[in-house]
Amino acid sequence: MGANKLREDLSALCSLPAALEAMGERWSFLILRGSFNGLKHFEEFQSELGIARNILANRLARLVDHGILARTPCPEDRRKIEYRLTDKGHALLPTMVALRQWGERWETGVPASPILVDARDMRPIAPVQVLSHDGRALGKGDLHWALPDDIAADTPEARAAE
After folding, report:
1. Rounded distance between C-alpha atoms, residue 127 and residue 37, angstroms
2. pLDDT tens sequence across 59-109
3. Is the dihedral of CA 34, 40, 44, 46 positive or negative?
4. C-beta of residue 128 within 8 angstroms of C-beta of residue 98
5. Helix orientation angle between 93-102 and 26-36, rounded to the nearest 10 degrees
6. Where in the sequence is the domain holding 63, given as residue range(s)?
7. What one-character-per-residue DSSP string does 24-86 give?
8. Residue 148, preceding bond cis, omega within 30 degrees?
9. CATH no. for residue 33?
10. pLDDT of 115-130, one tens digit each?
């Protein structure tokens, strides 16, 4: 297969544009961070983030529409609304941690505060890494784009492509 054809196929199949559409921009990531840190109510997000009410309402609606947050009445006061992470929202945790670590290394140059630690032993978490199917840490020289037909036989990915 020619390199141009591979690029065209990968571009057409790439899910990055869909992910960026769902998350949007800076405020969506900050709302998500707030959700991971326990914020649930519109007023909490607004106060913590200092975001304009109209922008917050728009971003919350987008995150709900994409299934990242669920909008439910508060159990103790049904007139009040809670925004809670869905399973899809929780699945964004590695992405959020990787972006934070990237920012610490390449943008600010200093560790963020508070420090993200393992709740079991209160030790800082390790850097997020791309791992191979057998757990090896992979670097940029170890990665290659492949179409489903090119993946080695007898892997979950190959079976899914059949």
Report:
1. 20
2. 999 999 999 999 999 888 888 999 999 999 999 999 999 999 999 999 999
3. positive
4. yes
5. 110
6. 1-91
7. -SHHHHHHHHHHHTT--SHHHHHHHH---HHHHHHHHHHHHHTTSEEEEE-SS-TTSEEEEE-
8. no
9. 1.10.10.10
10. 999 999 999 999 999 9
Q: Answer yes or no: is 35 within a domain.
A: yes
Contacts 24+ apart (CB under 8 A), 68-71: 68/22, 68/23, 68/32, 68/92, 69/31, 69/35
What count of other Cβ atoms lies within 10 Å of the Cβ of residue 68? 24
φ, ψ for residue 58 (rounded to 5)? Answer: -65, -45
Tell me how many domains the chain contains.
Answer: 1
106 in a structural domain: no
CA gap 12, 60 in Å, rounded: 29
Tell whether 114 is covered by a domain: no
- Residue 12's Cβ-count burial label (10 Å; 0-12, 13-18, 19+) is exposed
Both tokens assigned to 30: 């900050």
| pTM as predicted | 0.80
CA 86 to chain CA centroid, nearest Å: 12
**114-121 long-range Cβ contacts below 8 angstroms, 24+ apart:** none
Report the 10 Å Cβ neighbour count for 63: 26
Amino acid at site 107 = E
